[in-house]
Amino acid sequence: MTPLPATSRRAVLGRAGAVGGLAAAGAVAAPSAAQAAYPPARYRGAPLLNARSRHLVSRFSYGITPGLTATVRRDGGGSAWFEKQLDPARIADADVDGLRSWWSGLSRTPQDLWKRQETGVEGGWEVMADYQRWLLLRRMSSRRQVLEVMTEFWENHLNVPVNGDGPFTHRVSYGETIRKHALGRFEDLLHAAITHPAMLIYLDQAVSTKKRPNENLGRELLELHTVGRGTYTETDVKASARILTGWLVDLWDTWEPTYSPNAHWTGPVTVMGFSDANALADGRDLTRRYLTYLARHPATAQRIARKLVRKFVSDDAPQGLVDHLAKVYLDNGTAIKPVLRALVAHPAFLAAEGAKVKDPCEDLVSTFRALKIFVTRPPEGDAGDEHAANVLLWQTSSLGAMPLAWPRPDGQPTDNDSWSSPARLIASMELHFVLSGGWWPKTGVSYRSPAQWLPQPAIRFDVLVDHLSQQLLGRRSTSALLQACCEHLDVRPGERITRDHGVVRWNMPRLLTTLLDSPMFLTR
């Protein structure tokens, strides 16, 4: 990859300096005297979103595109689009409906999946890699962007990693369960997730009985999924584990989930403010009441609110906003939609444009969307290894993370520092350059030709930069961006560009990459 000259790098990054500073660089610093020599030109393209709508859509989608911009405007602006997105059943999503069939393993039964692994036909890790690819392609193409964003949020909050030898048998079903409840009530989501066989297997509840209660799920339920550290005792953890006994999975054979009254521990239990005689052998109703108590606990409300703020507003979550969202959460019986409405309407959200760095998967997905890269269905078997639908997973790995592969139960972090290392910045620049040039992957993918980025046969370079800024960034170019493009390609602002010019014939990847390496793209 050809690196940016130092002057171009400074011009693009503004006062950010590197990805580590991008959270402060949503708007590039005030133009210097040098930048003032590069007044941005204007290309008359399709109407853009205003700053408020662009910020909202950027946070709750996987990248603004001209098509998404047109949809938002057709829906009546950012707020109207967001409200429509909260009811995904209203939104046809034909482009996504058939994606699951691309990989047959995603529709196999748990028992079949295990037999195929045992006989060496298809490893569980291979099925899970296909699941990750399916998720990436959903995020690229789905019209239900808010649903996809919130499904990812909850799959990380209630994390069951895809890289496990047992949970993979039920992991696709688990993801679909999360998606079903992602915009519903948290207490329903919590019950569905905690009693799901994938979670039971991952945190050893599948073998927890009254004779040998396993504390893993009972502990993480308190520490990570609901009230958080400092609110419970070790005695509470033991009682939590006893409440959950009875939920089993037939491991290493049928992989069928069951509830066994004979395995349920009976006797009085107390967890924090929750007490129950627990006299019945069938403890399923007890589980429901216990999880409802935890979901509606004020400490859970604070924890959920703070995680939402850190994901969608800023790492330094304003306590006033957290308190406000926690109250909305409790007042609405743990319903998620009212909390999201309150979040996006709050002044702290409106003031946080560009404050969040994209993580590796967000970077890859938004790059594919911005560059209008289309992926076709891969063939089954080894012949598909170099296919774009498969390669894109290794591309996220090169950036430092793959979807839902965070190995601990706390889920992938959402703070800026975790994704702001120099190595991450260099890897992102390399990815942008490779994809802008259409060099890898080569199979099962279509790229725009360099000439297709020209909006007309002949155009001034500064006008072309503004056109590309609208296409890739969803906003007008700036003097800093124009200066970076001029210096990187050694082109004057007023230079006439045609399909025979060197910018189009050789250097379009460098031009596109300059925009994609900017803070305006690397943040959301």
Explain what this protein looks like in three dimensions.
By secondary structure, the chain is mainly alpha-helical. It has three domains: 6-45 and 360-400 and 421-522, no CATH class; 86-295, no CATH class; 298-350. Helix content is 50%, strand content 4%. The protein is built from 26 helices and eight strands. Strands 1-2 form a two-stranded antiparallel sheet. Strands 3-4 form a two-stranded antiparallel ribbon. Helix 7 packs across helix 19 and helix 12 packs across helix 13 (234-244). The longest helix has 18 residues, at 124-141. The two termini are 25 Å apart. The model is unreliable at 1-30 (pLDDT under 50).
Structural Rg: 25 Å
Can you summarize the main beta sheet? 2 strands, antiparallel
User: What is the global morphology?
Assistant: globular
N/C terminus separation: 25 Å
The low-confidence parts are 1-30
Number of domains: 3
User: Structural class of the helix and strand makeup?
Assistant: mainly alpha
Total strands: 8
* Percent of residues in beta strands: under 5%
Side-by-side strand order of the widest sheet: 1-2
Number of helices: 26
Percent range of helical residues: 40-55%
Mean pLDDT: 93
